Amino acid sequence: MEEFTRDTVYKDPQKNIKKFEFDQKVANAFPDMIYRSVPGYRTIINYCGSISSKYIKEDSYCYDLGCSLGASTLSIIECNRDTPFCLHAVDNSVEMIRRLEKIVAESNEERVICTLNDIMKHPIENASMVILNFTLQFIPLCDRQKLLSKIHEGLNPGGCLFFSEKIKFPSQKNNNLYNDLHHEFKRWMGYSNLEISQKRDSIENVLIPESEETHLNRLESVGFVSIDKWFQYLNFCSFTALKPS
Ligand code: GEK
Which CATH number does the domain housing residue 134 bear? Predict the structure, then answer.
């Protein structure tokens, strides 16, 4: 069994805060880190599984893009026990994908294929469902349209994109308010002010949030329909969007 630790990555004062990376330290603490940092994370993961069972079709592919340690992947597998399909879990962090490979091997699940790859380069085809859970925010702004267009192209008619992001609010006032509330959430989850501020400095310009309006316009512009926000907790949202049948 893989052993994961409590997130102490930013616990001690750091002289030079290095740019956030999905490295060994982060991968070892990732389940705890994301649970204590993303409001509503467990709900999103659980519903990702439930919603997938409405869309995943026999003999099709599902893609979990930026899968990390496979929380969405495993939720989907659990909710589609009897469906013969194949799930491609893709991440460009070697530390994440190696750990996920071990988890999948230990579960004897043959429907999951783990691939170390940049999602910009990964082919998408015959897809009944694509998951982008908190991944687009790490893709350079100039590539986001191209990625969504590729996902739309690779989805079968009626296929579903399940998409979750940290969002930015259009007004600076609201943005500051929700950032403060998010930091309060992290304090409730046991992070110190030092941990919160060091993580914030490290992830700035690495995680680039956009407004809900920007996301909706982009999804629409590449051809998605029935774009619905099914969940929001502070500045964290989750959407479903369909390729027309
Ligand atoms: C979850 N979805 O638990 N190609 C492939 N992977 C990438 C790329 C890229 N270009 N850029 C970033 N990643 C997961 C959580 S975490 C979100 C996703 C977070 C990967 C990166 O290595 C990391 O594993 C993941 O996207 C983002 O539901 O940490 O806030």
Answer: 3.40.50.150
Q: What's the average pLDDT block by block, 10 residues per block, for the chain (245 residues)?
A: 86 94 97 98 98 98 98 98 98 98 95 98 98 98 98 98 98 97 98 98 97 98 98 98 98
* Residue 214 is assigned to a structural domain of this protein: yes
Q: How far is the CA of 115 from the centre of ligand 1 (A)?
A: 13
Centroid of ligand 1 to alpha carbon of 67 (angstroms): 6
> Which residue minimizes the CA distance to atom 20 of ligand 1?
66
Element at 69 (helix H, strand E): none
Query: Whose C-alpha lies nearest to ligand 1, atom 26?
Result: 66
Does any domain span residue 4?
A: no
Q: How far is the CA of 68 from the centre of ligand 1 (A)?
A: 5
Per the structure, the count of domains in the chain is 1
Q: Give residue 230's domain range.
A: 24-169+207-242
The answer for 134, left when phi > 0, alpha when psi is -120 to 50, beta otherwise, is left
> Within a domain: residue 129?
yes
- Which residue blocks in 115-233 are alpha helix, DSSP H? 144-154, 172-188, 193-203, 212-221
pTM, 2 dp: 0.98
